[in-house]
């Protein structure tokens, strides 16, 4: 071990840059446990959650705005039908 180390050119912060964003999310305990159980042989349950969300997004195909418009139309139609009855 050296007597003196020069950290004058050191930089604070994360050592590894990542394209992922750190957030806080609240999930039900049973959801988290299910994902943890899936990776018991090794792996990262948070990465599994991320992969699952990405797969779901790709599967949906319909943009959020289109989904909202469709749901609103369906709800308005059901209200019109119930008022007519």
Key terms:
mainly alpha, 85 residues, 55% helix, single chain
Structure, described:
There is one protein chain. The termini are far apart. The chain is mainly alpha-helical and 85 residues long. The protein has a domain at 29-84. It contains three helices and no strands. The mean pLDDT is 86.
Total strand segments: 0
Largest sheet: none
Mean pLDDT across all residues, rounded? 86
Radius of gyration: 24 Å
| Global outline | elongated
- The helix content, as a percent range, equals 55-70%
Q: Note the total helix count.
A: 3
Cα distance, first to last residue?
86 Å
Content-based structural category: mainly alpha
Low-confidence stretches: none
The run of helices and strands is HHH
Approximately what portion of the residues adopt beta-strand conformation?
under 5%
């Amino acid at each position: 071990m050296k007597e003196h180390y020069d950290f004058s050119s050191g930089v604070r912060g994360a050592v590894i840059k990542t394209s992922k964003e750190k957030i806080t999310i609240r999930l039900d305990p049973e959801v988290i446990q299910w994902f943890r159980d899936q990776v018991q042989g090794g792996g990262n349950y948070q990465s599994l959650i991320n992969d699952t969300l990405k797969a779901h997004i790709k599967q949906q195909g319909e943009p959020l705005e289109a989904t909202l418009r469709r749901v609103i139309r369906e709800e308005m139609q059901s209200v019109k039908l119930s008022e007519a009855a």
